[in-house]
Amino acid sequence: MAAPESGDGNNGAARMVTLISSDNTRFEVEAAAASLSQTLQLTILDGGGGGGDGIPLPNVDSATLSKVLEYCIKHAPAAANGGAPNATAVDRAELERFDNEFVNIDQSVLYSLIMAAHNLEIEGLQSLVAKKVADMIKGKSPMEIRRTLGFPDPTPEEQAEMNAHMLEYGWAYE
Amino acid sequence: MADVTLLRTGHQQPSWADIPRDLAGMVLRLLPACADRARFAAVCPQWRAAARQLPLPPPLPLLALEDGTFFSLPYGKTFRFAGRSCADYKAAACGRWLVFPRDEGCFVVDPFTRATVTLPALSRIRLQPPNAVARYTQMGNSRIPHPFLTWMHIKDLKLEVALHKLILCSPNLVAAIFGSGPHAQILVCQPGASSWSVRTNDRCKCFEDMAFYQGKLYALAADDENLLVVNICQDPSTGDPEVSRIGQVIKGDLDPTVQAWLPDDAAKFVRKLYLVESCGTLLMVRRKVYCSSTGSMLLMAGHNEFEVFRADIKHSRWVRVTTLGDDQMIFLGRYYSRAVSASQYGISGDHIFFLDDDKVNMTDYLYDKESTSVGVYDMKTREVSSPLPMVWDHKMIHTAWLFPDD
């Protein structure tokens, strides 16, 4: 299954790879961006994903993959610089602004993103979404957290368990 | 019934409840507040399991108030330990214990696990030697303790001796400072014993703080800022601990301007001392609470300043330090102080968190504000801020930091 011009896997940013989402949409991206995924990096180093072949991602739908790749493309140059020690403050501020806006989305999309980032082992994206979720949780009651993250309404048994847990911990609001 | 549950779960949409354990851990590690961790764990059984089983850095401390309520940093909302009464604790010890002195015994309670350590009642004191008497000398019309004030004078004069500090040093050794101001003495006991032990002929001092550091008990006297080592021996018949000797380890080098009131009213301050271990080093924190006179005898507390000294025990001296280190922050309290790593909470270090607290049964000053609070002193800029959204009307005289993960 090796691609025709597999090369040494090390020949720079211009190399493109194709990713195929679970709903069969093909995405062509620079290998450097896709390599933010530890999982994909191995395949790409092996020469996969180039030419007419694509790398199938059966767990990631096209909407999520497009969002994931948006993140990877934005972060690839900094990642290529090895965590960007020589990045300017302006670059870092721009990335931060991008990140903040990037996760300013509905919880269901955040869920798909963090699951995809977990599957594809994209560390930065996992941390980014985890931080967003932590910020969404901070200061909220268990019920508020459930509503914020789109949990179904608790059954009476679940409600009782939640209450029992809070009591067990010894937490009750004044 | 079990099948029905399975069926229902199977039909549910993918849910945050089912995120992999390591992702739940990533989120949890970004929640340093005790309250947030408890609420996270209440959301669903999967998250509960994650919160119980994953190794996590210790949470930020709680702040226990005398009325039994507490704050979970950084939140300004009060909680209560449900089903447990934590009101009226009289002291706190070692990060997770609240102390309830009663007639039948002194109970040291862990509000998190409800574990209890029973100590002798504060009134049950064994004199050492038992035949000591309070001696006085006559000066004009008044009788003054001679040659100095001892525990026997405190008894004789019926001076109030509230519990000022308590340390659970080891399973067989509990040390406490009884009394405050110049009428303080160090007493020791072991859990389950029938009495505390006190040296009756030793001079009482302004014992301000104690620390159990590298297996030894140290005490700090405000009179002279001397660091003292409290040597302990055991009663051969009962095994009860006793103070055998108090030796001087560091001679304080108290600046005369620190010791005395300056003539200028604006520069008046009350000095408070704390011992705390940070990164293997014993530190003395000297806190100055600047006060303004109200015209009567009452002083109003103003701004705070801090100086930190490292105990150079080898050379018998205090060495001034200007930084705690970029990763260290200190939670300073009358009952218990603790240095912790700041980076684990994702916040910057070199800060001292302090309370508008005061001595037990001996108030040095009043507060002109309705609400007292937590202050944060920046060692670099020497400025105090109150970045925590904590505003409340409670008096802070009795407050204690609690570290649930100790």
UniProtKB/TrEMBL annotation, chain A:
Give residue ranges for domain SKP1 component POZ: 16-75
UniProt cross-references to SMART domains, sorted A to Z: Skp1 (SM00512)
Any Pfam family hit: Skp1_POZ
Q: List this protein's GO terms for biological process.
A: jasmonic acid mediated signaling pathway; protein ubiquitination; ubiquitin-dependent protein catabolic process
Asked if the keyword Signal belongs to this entry, the reply reads no
Stretches assigned to the SKP1 component dimerisation domain: 124-163
Sorted UniProt keywords: Ubl conjugation pathway
Q: What does the sequence similarity comment in the record state about its family?
A: Belongs to the SKP1 family.
User: Which function does this protein serve?
Assistant: Involved in ubiquitination and subsequent proteasomal degradation of target proteins. Together with CUL1, RBX1 and a F-box protein, it forms a SCF E3 ubiquitin ligase complex. The functional specificity of this complex depends on the type of F-box protein. In the SCF complex, it serves as an adapter that links the F-box protein to CUL1.
Assembly information from the UniProt record: Part of a SCF (SKP1-cullin-F-box) protein ligase complex.
The name on file for this protein is: SKP1-like protein
Species for this entry: Eleusine coracana subsp. coracana
From TrEMBL, chain B:
SUPFAM superfamilies documented for this protein: F-box domain, Galactose oxidase, central domain
Q: Which residues form the F-box domain?
A: 16-56
Q: What would be one Pfam family of this protein?
A: Beta-prop_KIB1-4
Residue ranges constituting the KIB1-4 beta-propeller domain according to the UniProt record: 70-378
Q: According to the UniProt entry, where is the signal peptide?
A: none
| Annotated source species | Eleusine coracana subsp. coracana
Lineage start: Eukaryota, Viridiplantae, Streptophyta, Embryophyta, Tracheophyta
Q: Identify the domain of life.
A: Eukaryota
Write the protein's name. DUF295 domain-containing protein
InterPro entries referenced in this protein's UniProt entry, alphabetically: F-box-like_dom_sf, F-box_dom, Gal_Oxase/kelch_b-propeller, KIB1-4_b-propeller
